[in-house]
Write a structure and sequence with these properties.
By secondary structure, this protein is mainly alpha-helical. 55% of the residues lie in helices and 0% in strands. The protein has one domain. The longest helix is centred in the last third of the chain and has 17 residues.
Length: 177
């Protein structure tokens, strides 16, 4: 399994993920296909891909409902969860967006994948790998300085909230999906 995981990671690194990594075509379809190419069975590839896609399909983990919760409640825990799962950065929260730059393939983007690889003998290894791939892939889609929802009209919880980077279309890109 460790060899298959390394092959999957290599394939993901070589695949241009700079496109919008929001739709299931990246988080499910491409992940499933790459996992099969890396040597995982179709069933294991499905488990990995479903776990990857689950962060966007979940009411609890999806970025937009989480941002709404952060804006309404200023929930630091939710902001950290959003950062870890969708906008990987090593910046401490709360902090200005300029300090929370998302860098593709950075340590924070790879952290969950690397943890899943180290513990690949667990009963939930495939799920952990899939969940770890989500912020890894999002690090390409969200690279740059996170935008602040509703900017420039008003800035809602600018030290906690994140949105698609302004340089790549800003918060409105994600809100219109």
């Amino acid at each position: 399994m460790a060899r298959s995981i390394r092959a999957l990671i290599l394939l993901l690194l070589l695949t241009p993920l700079a496109s919008r990594a929001w739709e299931s075509d990246v988080h499910y379809v491409l992940t499933w296909w790459l996992a099969v190419q890396a040597g995982f069975s179709r069933g294991d590839a499905d488990s990995i891909a479903r776990a990857d896609q689950s962060f966007d399909d979940s009411d609890h983990h999806s970025a937009i409902p989480t941002v709404v919760s952060i804006v309404l409640s200023r929930d630091l825990g939710a902001a950290r969860d959003l950062q870890r799962k969708h906008f990987p950065s090593d910046a401490q929260l709360p902090s200005p967006a300029m300090r929370r730059v998302v860098t593709p393939n950075s340590g924070p983007a790879r952290a969950a994948v690397e943890a899943a690889i180290r513990t690949n003998a667990s009963a939930t290894a495939l799920q952990e790998l899939g969940e770890g791939l989500h912020p890894f892939q999002d690090s390409w889609a969200h690279q740059g300085v996170p935008d602040v929802p509703l900017r420039p009209a008003i800035q809602l919880s600018p030290e906690l909230s994140c949105a698609h980077p302004q340089a790549r279309g800003g918060w409105l890109v994600a809100a219109c999906r």
